[in-house]
Amino acid sequence: MSLSAAAAAVTGGEARPEEDERILVSEVEVRGVEGELRRVAEAALSIKPNFGYTMKEVQDDIHRVFDTGFFEKCQPHGEDTRDGVKLTVEVTANPELRGLVASGANVLPQRVIEDAFRAQYGRTLNFGEFSKALKRLNGWYEDRGLFGQVTGVDMADGIVDVRLAEMVVSGLALRYVDKKSGEARDEGRTRPEVVLRQLTTRPGQVYSTRQARSNIDAVYSMGLFDDVNILPQPAEDSTLEHPKVDLVLNVVERKTGGLSAGGGISGQGHAAGVVPGFIGSASYAQRNLFGLNQKLSATVELGQTDSLFRINHTDPWVGGDSSRTSRTISLQNTRASGTAIHGRASDDPGRTGAGASTSGDPGEESGGDAGSVVVARLMGGVEYSRPLATGWTGTLGVNWQRANPLTFSGGDSDTLMLALLRAAYSGRADTALAASVEQAVPVQPSWLNFNRLRLRAERSVPLGAGVSAQLCAKGGVIFGDLPPYEAFPIGGTNSVRGYSEGGVGSGRSYVAGTAELHYPIYGPVEGTLFADYGSDLDSGQRVLGDPAGARGKPGNGYGYGAGVRIDSPVGPLRLEYAWNAAGLRRFHLGIGSHG
Question: Taking every annotated instance into account, which residue ranges of this chain make up the domain Bacterial surface antigen (D15) (predicted)?
């Protein structure tokens, strides 16, 4: 190829060499900029004088100059010389970024926009850095699950106009879906306003997938639906510049009430009789009373020693209160064995079943005279609860109670009016805290007057491969009038395992701690290794009649062992085998997490 044809090819003329035909470049020059920008362009070029290059290699070099991001135009020119083709790269620098205007950003903070572009002000605009800044704005929306993005960019006289579009919620609708047919129904058993009040999304807000998931969880937690989902649909007046979305909440209702009956083993596990702790129960429950998500339950339990009648009514959202205050009213009449307080410390090896010891002194009876002690209580009360902050819930309540026998007052029964204040935290990382203060108010001179404080802390620590450590610590103290049946019992299935219920002691104050290691076995079955400790802090003798000391309870003790847990709809089912500080062994059967 002649030199003139080669120069024309570099410049973009009609003469085109073969792809692999080389052009001798005698000189390389960058024009249009000076100083630092010229050095940037020259550094991007790999073409050197007095070497031959194909047209593709020349074009690749021009692209490298353009890819530096500092130039809006980059044009090669070829000129014949005696020694070859002189390659001149003509570049036009981007304008200097002097300012920025963002339009359409309603939730995107101005600070985020300023931070994204601040380093580029007063400098030649670089396309690469500018693109990263735009991606940073889009990333802010993505990180928060918000529907928003940059839709366009214009620049004039060094001022950049960034256009953003945020998808706004236009409307909310509720659709009841038939469970069998999957078709929409005109009405449901739950009032629409009761469902929709669970949503934190409101018309005019930017649509958030994170908020949508939270709304689904809130509606599902009502316990009234088998399936909940949100279907976003473009609104009729939605445009590219101003996108809008209508949200349809689809719910499939479930059965919310009915009668049930059953039997089981009491958590006391210590009632006298051939089958210790056996109970039968019948209950009625309605979780959606009047379509308002109010809960009404009535329960009757009858055992060989224990009996219970309880009726509860819960309104989860009193009068549509903006603070989401709930109210629970309860009435309860119980007769319960006093074994946990008045039972003996030692276990009878002759007993069998859940809670039975496999070693002990054959000369002692478990429970002893405790079988004749039955504590009867009549109670009624009301509690109000509401969220306080993220993860925190507060409860305020009042409870009236009449109990007998073994009274503190010395009369036929004790009467008390108990005010309750409780704060609970259930946060991330499987951490839970609970603290409560109860004050018995002596409305009449004969009524009890005491103050009770309780504290509990739990933490779950993942160790990997499905293994986790569960830690729990709790304690309490009582000041003032203390009837024996209100003392803190220590020991048993949900306290210090390896002991009978209340087998460690009972006191005005106590501390207890548990460490458990959970590891997977198969499916819903887990294995556990555990160690427990509990102490009455030498307060047992300060309980009226010193029931723990009179029955030879040690006042402190520890237990350790192993067991299995099976997840179930009513909570973990636990079968555990434990040794205590005296070397006695014991099976424990429990429902729910330990403690």
Answer: 288-593
* CA dist., res. 219 & res. 207, Å (int): 18
Q: For residue 498, count CB atoms less than 10 angstroms from its CB and return exposed for 0-12, middle for 13-18, buried for 19 or more.
A: buried
pLDDT in tens, 445-463: 999 999 999 999 999 999 9
Q: What sign has the CA pseudo-torsion 494, 497, 500, 503? A: negative
Q: Which letter, b or e, does each residue of 550-584 get, where b requires 16 or more Cβ atoms within 10 Å of its Cβ?
A: ebebbbbbbbbbebebeeeeeebbbebebbbbbeb
Q: What is the pLDDT of residue 18?
A: 58
What pLDDT, on a 0 to 100 scale, did the predictor assign at position 17? 52
Backbone phi and psi for residue 197, each to the nearest 5 degrees, phi listed first = -70, -15
Count: domains in the chain:
4
From first CA to last CA, the distance across the chain in angstroms is: 92
**CA atoms within 13 Å, Cβ hemisphere of 31:** 11
Contacts 24+ apart (CB under 8 A), 199-205: 199/172, 199/249, 201/169, 201/172, 201/247, 202/169, 202/172, 203/169, 203/170, 203/171, 203/172, 204/168, 204/169, 205/168, 205/169
Residue with tokens 């009226």: 544
Low-confidence ranges of the chain (pLDDT < 70): 1-20, 264-277, 343, 345-372, 429
Regarding whether 448 and 329 lie in a shared domain, the answer is yes
For residue 589, which of 263, 262, 264, 261 has the smallest C-alpha distance? 264
Task: Indicate whether 21 and 141 sit together in one domain.
Answer: no
How many angstroms separate the Cα of 391 from the Cα of each of 35, 168, 209, 424, 450?
59, 28, 21, 8, 30
Query: Over the range 187-224, which residues count as b (16 or more CB within 10 Å of their CB) and which as e?
Result: ebebbbebbeebbebeeeebbbeebbebbbeebbebeb
pLDDT in tens, 29-78: 889 889 888 898 888 888 888 888 888 888 898 999 988 888 889 988 88
Taking the C-alpha atoms of residue 357 and residue 269, their distance in angstroms, rounded to an integer, is: 12
The pair phi, psi for residue 257, each rounded to 5°, is -155, 165
In one-letter notation, the amino acid at residue 193 is E
Mean pLDDT of the chain: 87
pTM for the full predicted model: 0.74
Same domain flag for 245 and 364: no
Domain carrying residue 349: 257-591
β strands within 82-123, DSSP E: 84-93, 99-103
pLDDT at 527: 96
Whether residues 75 and 219 share a domain: the answer is no
SS3 307: strand
Contact 76, 91 (CB under 8 A): no
